[in-house]
Amino acid sequence: MAYFEWADDMEIDRGPIDDDHKNLVRLVNELHTATSAGRGHEVIEQIMGNLINYTKDHLEREEQIMAALHFPNLERHKQGHQQFAKKLNELQAKYEAGSITVPSQLSTVLRDWLSLHIRRSDKEIKVFLQRKEKLGKK
């Protein structure tokens, strides 16, 4: 059983947002597997770099998609993204300062944030898309 599993209730658009989220889940599991095997210090730099960069790229892509859809809660969503990016930067700085607990902290922070963010904030995108689709069919 994976540390963090994709679930149907996390589905947003059956497209680029979900693809990004699934890739982030895979990266979190990769990090957790390495840290659980005691190899966190060996792989953390590469995995952490990949996770942080991919997460930031995803947040930008998601915001671009929301802007193109004229999503009404874009600014609030962006604020949540900025706070999360700040947290990732803080963890990276802790790692660079020599903290050995960052690999496990990072996998926990990402798992928890992704799960909650997708199921709460990103769910608004799904609802918005469904409403838009219904209006388009009428």
UniProtKB/TrEMBL annotation:
<dbReference type="GO" id="GO:0046872">
    <property type="term" value="F:metal ion binding"/>
</dbReference>
<dbReference type="InterPro" id="IPR012827">
    <property type="entry name" value="Hemerythrin_metal-bd"/>
</dbReference>
<keyword id="KW-0408">Iron</keyword>
<dbReference type="InterPro" id="IPR050669">
    <property type="entry name" value="Hemerythrin"/>
</dbReference>
<dbReference type="Pfam" id="PF01814">
    <property type="entry name" value="Hemerythrin"/>
</dbReference>
<protein>
    <submittedName>
        <fullName>Hemerythrin family protein</fullName>
    </submittedName>
</protein>
<dbReference type="InterPro" id="IPR035938">
    <property type="entry name" value="Hemerythrin-like_sf"/>
</dbReference>
<keyword id="KW-0479">Metal-binding</keyword>
<comment type="similarity">
    <text>Belongs to the hemerythrin family.</text>
</comment>
<dbReference type="InterPro" id="IPR012312">
    <property type="entry name" value="Hemerythrin-like"/>
</dbReference>
<feature type="domain" description="Hemerythrin-like">
    <location>
        <begin position="17"/>
        <end position="126"/>
    </location>
</feature>
